[in-house]
Amino acid sequence: MDAFIIEGGNQLQGEVSISGAKNAVLGIIPAAVLCACTSKIENVPDIKDVNKMIDILEKLGAEIYKEQDTVIINTEKPISYDVSDYEEETGQMRASYYLLGALLGRYRKAIVPLPGGCNIGDRPIDQHIKGFQALGATVVIEHGQVKMEAPELKGAHIFLDVVSVGATINIMLAAVRADGKTVIENAAKEPHIVDVANFLNLMGANIKGAGTDVIKITGVDEMHGCEYSVIPDQITTGTYMMAAAATEGDVLLKNVIPKHMEAITAKLTEMGAIVKEEDNGIRVIGKRPLKAINVKTMPYPGFPTDLQQPMAVLMTIAEGTSTITESIFESRFKYVDELRRMGANISINGRTASIIGVKNLSATKIRATDLRAGAAMVIAGLIADGETKVTDIVHIDRGYEKLQENMRNIGADIRRVSE
Ligand code: EPZ
C-alpha cells in the first residue's frame, strides 16, 4: 500500500491543468458499447476507476486502445452482456452499475454484479431498478448479481423518488435504445449528466433537457460511433481551489468551466479567499484567517457532497464556528476522527458537523477513509505543522490524476512512499 508523506506549511503557487471528469467519463465509456461501432474519447483521466472500467469492457470483448488521454473503443464485434465473472473488478467502483443500462440498451439483457465504491453510507440502486422495470425489464437480484431481461424495451414516464446521478444516467443509457419516448422527472442536473447526454446525442441518440430536472428521450434504432472530449472535473477543480485557499496560495486552475464552480466560488469567497475568473481559468488567492461559514450539501447546482470533506478541512482553521450539513449520504463523516487526531475541534450531531476553528492542525499519521476524504487528508497535511503521513491512498488514486505531481508542481512538499 502506498502512502503520501507531506511536510506542511508551503504556500501553493503556480498553475494546474485540470483533467477530464471522472464521473462523466465513467458514464461515457459504457455508453460507447450501445452500438456496434468505434468511438474516440479524449480528455480521459488516467485514474484507477477509468482503467478498471476499460479492463472490464476488454474482458467482455471490446477492443480498446489507449494513448495518453485518448481512448478508442471498438465494439463492432459483439461483446458479452454477462459481467458476472468480473465481480472483483466491478466491486471496486460504483460506476460499474452503468454496465446495466448500457448492456440492457444494446442487448435487452444484462447480468452485472452489484457495485462497490466509496463506503459513505447506504447506497441503494432501487431507483435504477425502478427505471429499468418501467422500461419493461424483469429484474432479479440473486447471488450478488443483478439479472435483467427485456424482450421489449419501451419508453416510459419515470418519476425518480430521490435525485440520483447514477439512476438518471443509467436510465438514459437504456432509454436511448428503447422504443418510443421516455421522460425522467426529478432528474439529476450535474454537469456530468449533461456530458453523458451530449456524448449519447453525438452517437445519434435523441435526448432533450439534460441539465434540467425533466429529461426527454426518444429512442432510436441506430446509433453510431463519434469523437468526443470529456468536460473538466468539477470536483478535482474544487479540490485544488480549496488547497490554494487553505495554504494562502495563489493558484491558477486551467481547463475548467467556471460556471460549474459557482457554489464553491461563492463559499470560498465568503470565507475570505479571492476567486477570480481569468481568460484561461480560475485563480484562487488564499487569505488567512479564513472566516467560519455554513455549508449544506445539495444536488447540483448546490454545494457538491464530493467537496464536503475538503471543505471541512478549511473550516478546521477558520475563525469561529462553521457548520457543514451532509444531506446526500448519511455517513460521509468517517474522516472526522482523522482530523480530530490532528487537533481539529469537530462535533457531529446527526448529519451536521460543527467545527470550531483552531489556530493550526498538527501533523500525524492519518488515513484516507475514501476517495474525497483522501483529498481532504492531503489538504490537512499541506497546512499542518510538521510531517503528515496519509495512508490508504489507493482511494485517492481511484479519482485524482497525478495528484502528487500536480501538487509538487505548485510547491507542495509531498512524496509517495511504498509500504
Ligand atoms: C454519484 O454516486 C457519484 N458517483 C458520487 O461520486 C457522488 O457523490 C454522487 O453521485 C452524488 O453526486 C459516480 O458518479 C460514479 P446518487 P451515486 O445516486 O450515483 C440515494 C465520488 O467521490 N439513492 O446521486 O451513487 C443515495 O443513497 C463519488 O466521486 C437512492 O436512494 O449517487 C443518495 O442518498 C462518491 N436510490 C442519493 O440518492 C438509488 O437508487 C444520491 O445518490 C440511488 C440513489
UniProtKB/TrEMBL annotation:
Keywords assigned by UniProt, alphabetized? Cell cycle, Cell division, Cell shape, Cell wall biogenesis/degradation, Cytoplasm, Peptidoglycan synthesis, Pyruvate, Transferase
- Give the pathway: Cell wall biogenesis; peptidoglycan biosynthesis
**Where in this protein does the record say 2-(S-cysteinyl)pyruvic acid O-phosphothioketal is found?**
C118
Span of domain Enolpyruvate transferase: 7-407
Places the protein is found: Cytoplasm
Family annotation (InterPro entries)? Enolpyruvate_Tfrase_dom (IPR001986), Enolpyruvate_Tfrase_sf (IPR036968), MurA_subfamily (IPR050068), RNA3'P_cycl/enolpyr_Trfase_a/b (IPR013792), UDP_GlcNAc_COvinyl_MurA (IPR005750)
EC no. given is: 2.5.1.7
Which CDD domains does the record associate with it? UdpNAET (cd01555)
Q: Its Gene Ontology molecular function terms?
A: UDP-N-acetylglucosamine 1-carboxyvinyltransferase activity
Chain positions recorded as UDP-N-acetyl-alpha-D-glucosamine binding sites:
R94, R123, P124, I125, D126, Q127, D306, I328
Q: Which reaction does it catalyse?
A: phosphoenolpyruvate + UDP-N-acetyl-alpha-D-glucosamine = UDP-N-acetyl-3-O-(1-carboxyvinyl)-alpha-D-glucosamine + phosphate
- What does UniProt list as catalytic? C118
Positions with a binding annotation for phosphoenolpyruvate: K22, N23
Q: Which family does it belong to?
A: Belongs to the EPSP synthase family. MurA subfamily.
UniProt xrefs under NCBIfam families: murA, PRK09369.1, PRK12830.1
The name under which this protein is listed is UDP-N-acetylglucosamine 1-carboxyvinyltransferase
* Species this protein is from: Acetobacterium fimetarium
